[in-house]
Amino acid sequence: MQPQSDFTAPLAFSVLDLAAVAQGNTPADTFRNSLSLAQHVEQLGYTRYWLSEHHNMAGVASSAPPVLMGYIAGGTSTLRVGSGGIMLPNHAPLVVAEQLGTLATLYPGRIDLGLGRAPGTDQRTAQAIRGGRFGAEQDFGRDIKQLQTYFSAANSGAAVRAIPGEGLDVPIYVLGSSTDSAYLAAELGLPYAFASHFAPGQLQSAINIYRRNFQPSAQLAAPYVIACVNVIAADTDDEAHYLATTLQQLMLGVITGERKLMQPPVASMRAFWTPELAQYVGQMLAASFVGSKATLREELGEFVAQTQINELMAVAHIYDHQARLHSYQLLAETLREMNQQPIGELAGVGNG
């Protein structure tokens, strides 16, 4: 069953994993760390663990989300595991239905399908992935509807069927980083996950559009919003800001095109960027929460009160694996404490 929107319900919290490869590590190390993190957050009460799709990036090993999803689901028992997301223009809907149907058959009631429309890479690599389909007209909404058809029991009499997949409950989520996807998610009556961890500028506008235009569907009765944000927590604010320089270096590489493996933290970023580049990085990381539990409680409280999201999905680009595990533990403790108080009180405003 799909989640239902309820602003009075406790805030759900989840994980997005890009399978970032740290300097000195291999993709194999990265995958082992991902499983370790998934097992850790499962014990901490996180709702779901999503894996992204990226290609042709030395520092990102999540090029095959369904494969990683099977690995993570096989090593956990209750955690929902999903794609955050599968970039649908890269794949034929039938193949996606078969792959996710296989996963949902192996791990019933635990598989999510998050779908995006971006290529997840550069244009040359996208061409290599799509082959003869590269120049074809893309219709994201049409492909989502085709996927829904393949998953439906009513498709059993069709000439083309998804086996396994047909008749299975595989929740579909629309991912986006602009307002375009908000209209589509609303039209289809599907949950909406916004990538504010790198594109925060249109978050509030997209949420407003989605809620205003939402059409109830067989899958979802009311709007459901997930906001993905960067969270780096530590025992002190100073330590958290030190750890966050890894994230700042990563985003700097995105802007300059000088992508590297995930770098260790540094005492100061002054030697790495100009004031202009620092400003660009700051804009990309506007939806980032860095600090101790006390700082997170205050800043996340304001964010949740403003956006009225149903679920917070956190990504943590932290170089040291143990520090990453600790960050997710501190976040879980913070959010559990927040869930014990009304949102208005968390934000320091009245409820009237």
TrEMBL record:
<dbReference type="InterPro" id="IPR036661">
    <property type="entry name" value="Luciferase-like_sf"/>
</dbReference>
<dbReference type="InterPro" id="IPR019949">
    <property type="entry name" value="CmoO-like"/>
</dbReference>
<comment type="similarity">
    <text>To bacterial alkanal monooxygenase alpha and beta chains.</text>
</comment>
<dbReference type="GO" id="GO:0016705">
    <property type="term" value="F:oxidoreductase activity, acting on paired donors, with incorporation or reduction of molecular oxygen"/>
</dbReference>
<dbReference type="InterPro" id="IPR011251">
    <property type="entry name" value="Luciferase-like_dom"/>
</dbReference>
<dbReference type="InterPro" id="IPR050766">
    <property type="entry name" value="Bact_Lucif_Oxidored"/>
</dbReference>
<feature type="domain" description="Luciferase-like">
    <location>
        <begin position="13"/>
        <end position="302"/>
    </location>
</feature>
<dbReference type="GO" id="GO:0005829">
    <property type="term" value="C:cytosol"/>
</dbReference>
<protein>
    <recommendedName>
        <fullName>Luciferase-like monooxygenase</fullName>
    </recommendedName>
</protein>
<dbReference type="Pfam" id="PF00296">
    <property type="entry name" value="Bac_luciferase"/>
</dbReference>
